[in-house]
């Protein structure tokens, strides 16, 4: 039997959730984290980019409650202490796709800009 990972968040993540435009979007962001924690979904690995800093230990998920072909929101998370020995999913940032918002929030929060 696999033990569920803990779910943690960096300081400021709750502010990101609160800044999302409506209840449906906020609920979807939280549900995405729960799906990751439960092993039902896995994000796409991020890397080191000039525009966003080094997010190589993070993953991204796209989401949008309106079911758009081009989801408007991004969720950034990572496994702690690392992907192989993970004991927790750490929510790093969530925000809009536009202007790399979620990624820039994540890089700033991790001190990597």
Give a description of the structure.
The chain is α+β, with helices and mostly antiparallel strands. Helices cover 27% and strands 29% of the residues. The protein contains three helices and seven strands; from the N terminus they run E-H-H-E-E-E-E-E-E-H. It has helices at 13-19, 23-37, 101-109; strands spanning 6-9, 44-45, 48-49, 53-54, 58-63, 73-80, 88-96. A five-stranded mixed β-sheet has the order 1-7-6-5-2. Strands 3-4 form a two-stranded antiparallel ribbon. The radius of gyration is 13 Å and the shape is globular. It starts with 5 loop residues before the first strand and ends with a helix. The model has no long low-confidence stretch (mean pLDDT 93).
Percentage beta strand: 25-35%
Strand order of the largest sheet: 1-7-6-5-2
Q: Which stretches are poorly predicted, pLDDT < 50 over at least 5 residues?
A: none
| Total of helices | 3
- Strand runs, count: 7
Approximate helicity band: 25-40%
Structural class: alpha+beta
Radius of gyration: 13 Å
- What is the averaged pLDDT score? 93
Shape: globular
Biggest sheet: strands, sense, closure? 5 strands, mixed
Order of helices and strands: EHHEEEEEEH
Give the N-to-C terminal Cα separation.
40 Å
Compact summary:
By secondary structure, the chain is an alpha+beta fold. Helix content is 27%, strand content 29%. It contains three helices and seven strands.
Helix and strand topology:
Blueprint: E1 6-9, H1 13-19, H2 23-37, E2 44-45, E3 48-49, E4 53-54, E5 58-63, E6 73-80, E7 88-96, H3 101-109
Parallel strand pairs: 1-7
Antiparallel strand pairs: 2-5, 3-4, 5-6, 6-7
């Amino acid at each position: 039997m696999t033990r569920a990972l803990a779910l943690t968040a960096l300081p400021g993540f709750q502010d990101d959730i609160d800044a999302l435009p409506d209840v449906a979007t906020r609920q979807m962001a939280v549900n995405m984290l729960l799906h990751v924690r439960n092993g039902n979904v896995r994000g796409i690995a991020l890397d080191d980019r000039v525009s966003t800093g080094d997010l190589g230990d993070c993953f991204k998920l796209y989401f949008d409650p309106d079911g758009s072909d081009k989801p408007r929101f991004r969720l950034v998370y990572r496994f702690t202490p690392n992907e192989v020995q993970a004991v927790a999913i750490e929510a790093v940032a969530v925000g809009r796709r536009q202007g790399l918002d979620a990624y820039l929030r994540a890089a700033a929060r991790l001190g990597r800009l």
